[in-house]
């Protein structure tokens, strides 16, 4: 009996650290470019602050209120540039912004829409009333995330829930498959 408890406790500790031992923890996929995008947003905001402060200092107009204004402007730039963190697991996809986390159950998707415009957005809606928006480039850059979404969307389509948007997902999948095939051909010099 003591052996079973020790094994179960070790599995829980491994799960808490994100190691194996529990299938749910190992199956979560995250946008692999998110940390680099956050660093880029921080550097842009910091660069703006330093540049404006140096210009103000060189002109001899730097004061405490102006410094606070530049800091506020830089913070606003960071908020605008902060990337959403996209994660997916078996049957769900979540988008975490600065202040809010939204998720959809991919097996219960009812609509997938692609909105073109200044910034292309992929809008996912499920039968529970949940809705998320994300940049489709995140899925193109992270095939595992797209695979999770596609797997759930197929289940929703097979259940008769997903009636709108199958073509959009097929286009994204084909785009990734085409890019992967080109990469293989270029790597093996078979152009």
TrEMBL record:
Positions of transmembrane segments: 40-58
UniProt entry tagged with the keyword Transmembrane: yes
Region (Disordered): 1-21
Keywords: Membrane, Transmembrane, Transmembrane helix
Domain of life according to the entry: Bacteria
Protein name, as recorded: Translation initiation factor IF-2
Annotated source species: Streptomyces anatolicus
């Amino acid at each position: 009996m003591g052996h079973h408890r020790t094994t179960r406790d070790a599995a829980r500790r491994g799960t808490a650290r994100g190691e194996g031992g529990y299938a749910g923890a190992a199956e979560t996929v995250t946008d692999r470019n998110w940390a680099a995008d956050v660093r880029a947003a921080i550097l842009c905001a910091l660069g703006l602050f330093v540049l404006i402060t140096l210009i103000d200092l060189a002109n001899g107009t730097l004061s405490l209120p102006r410094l606070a204004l530049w800091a506020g402007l830089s913070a606003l730039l960071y908020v605008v540039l902060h990337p959403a963190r996209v994660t997916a697991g078996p049957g769900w996809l979540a988008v975490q912004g600065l202040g809010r986390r939204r998720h959809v159950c991919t097996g219960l998707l009812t609509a997938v829409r692609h909105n073109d415009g200044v910034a292309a957005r992929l809008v996912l809606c499920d039968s529970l009333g949940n809705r998320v928006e994300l940049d489709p480039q995140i899925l193109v850059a992270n095939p595992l995330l797209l695979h999770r979404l596609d797997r759930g969307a197929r289940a929703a389509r097979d259940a008769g829930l997903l009636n709108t948007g199958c073509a959009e997902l097929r286009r994204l999948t084909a785009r990734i498959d085409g890019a992967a095939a080109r990469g293989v051909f270029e790597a093996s010099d078979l152009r």
